[in-house]
UniProtKB/TrEMBL annotation:
GO biological process: transmembrane transport
Molecular function GO labels: ATP binding; ATP hydrolysis activity
Pfam families: ABC_tran
Residue intervals of the ABC transporter domain: 21-261
Keywords for the protein's UniProt record, in alphabetical order: ATP-binding, Nucleotide-binding, Transport
InterPro entries: AAA+_ATPase (IPR003593), ABC_transp_ATP-bind (IPR050319), ABC_transporter-like_ATP-bd (IPR003439), ABC_transporter-like_CS (IPR017871), P-loop_NTPase (IPR027417)
Similarity section: Belongs to the ABC transporter superfamily.
UniProt key word Transport: yes
Database matches in SUPFAM superfamilies: P-loop containing nucleoside triphosphate hydrolases
Name this polypeptide is given: ABC transporter family protein
Amino acid sequence: MIPDTTRTTDAPDVSGVPAVLRVQDLVVTYGRHRAVDGVGFAVAPGESYAVVGESGCGKTTLARTVLGLLRPAAGEVALEGVRLDQARGRDLRALRRRVQIVFQNPFAALNPRMTVARLVDEPLRLAQPGLTAAGRAEAVSALLASVGLADRFLGRRPHELSGGQCQRVAIARALAMDPVLLVLDEPTSALDVSVQAQVLNLLADLRQRRGLAYLLISHDLGVVRHLADRIGVMSAGRLVEEGPAQEVLSAPAADYTRALIAAVPGRGRAALVGGAGAATASGPGAPGSTGSSQ
Ligand SMILES: Nc1ncnc2c1ncn2[C@@H]1O[C@H](COP(=O)(O)OP(=O)(O)OP(=O)(O)O)[C@@H](O)[C@H]1O
């Protein structure tokens, strides 16, 4: 349950729907450097919102603040209407569980000594402390199945898995916490090109099936085009443009966005500006197939 001691007074919404995440006038500093400088946006339930921009523009800092790992110098971060930036102690921990992250490098994110079964069981114990061992085992199998991994993977350790399989385990761990929002931090950029599209399709499929909202952090506009409904373009800590993904990519308003798109090599750029819903520029493979390792 989300604590309601710090609810925002004004109703946060996106087109009339209460927001899962609302960020307002956010400032995050490292010493005197404003890494995030007055950013505001909202993400609706089930929506996928991408923050794009060059290295150093503040994407990771923004993501870490949304995860409750950094405290803003000013502004608000609200999750389902509850102020994350004001929460402390148990309230903060309860809020943090509602937002999970999938990191760029799945090998680094998984404890190499744990089996797949234990890796998925661990967050489940936290999320559902009342479950029996048998109930948890069943839930672990179901979570793995939902990311396309069969029971034969239960006893394996990360070094016995491919990068794509590791990323599927990392996604299953995130889902075990029953989040409302997944932060996807360059979720495919460490993977072989051959499995990137499968993981992207899995993420698109999971969003649809579970009604999850995504905050996608990426510099890869091909990935963004595949997964995002809306895009916020960030430069030097500020949002310089925001809009529906297809509009931003095909008719960018800001010079900075135009330069980002112009930097994508030829064929990828043509795919980007051609409309939403096609294969990614960076990841070939069959759109619509989530692949699996059954
Ligand atoms: N711990 C830190 N201490 C001081 N400055 C930092 C720290 N982390 C990031 N910065 C600076 O803040 C700015 C934003 O960094 P951030 O990592 O958020 O950008 P980014 O867009 O995520 O970049 P990348 O895509 O390379 O990860 C950069 O100028 C960076 O050098």
